[in-house]
Amino acid sequence: MGCNMKVELKSLKHSEFASRETHCFEATVWLNGKRAFYAQNDGHGGADLYAPLENQDRVEFNGLLNDLINHCLTLPKWGSEFGDADNMDVTPEILIGNLVNKMLDSKKLKKSLKAKVLFINENGIYQTGYGNKRPVDQNLIDMVKEENPDSIVLNCLAFSEALDLYRGEHA
Prior knowledge:
Blueprint: E1 7-15, E2 24-31, E3 34-42, E4 49-51, H1 58-72, H2 92-115, E5 117-121, E6 124-128, H3 138-147, E7 152-153, H4 159-170
Antiparallel strand pairs: 1-2, 2-3, 3-4, 5-6, 5-7
Helix pairs in contact: 2-4
């Protein structure tokens, strides 16, 4: 498996209340469109655990995990938000953690876009709504655009673009 490996998580189960120092989750890792193995974390700050699929040979599981490790080494190095230079290798745990974060942000954004108009300007990300259970409509979007002409209204963008902006401001 080469450097163009497609890594996805499916069947993500996340427990917000059990997530303390890390996300408490379990998911199936897919590599290049095929189920590869399971990943999980108990949410108490420990490392992710990887396990073979049911009826999966241990040699196959180890090979797929090694393929993921080697793929991670081809990815750009990264630095922490605490000022470290971009000199740390991506690991499966970092990659899977980022995928969990993106899936959770996506879910949160979808919910927010139904109830609120979200917009970004040079000062940050903002939201407004009707204040009751009434969903967003074009009148509210038009009002936000008129009152904030220099802002980007996330509700008007393709979801993937809105998510990228949301995560950039949010993360």
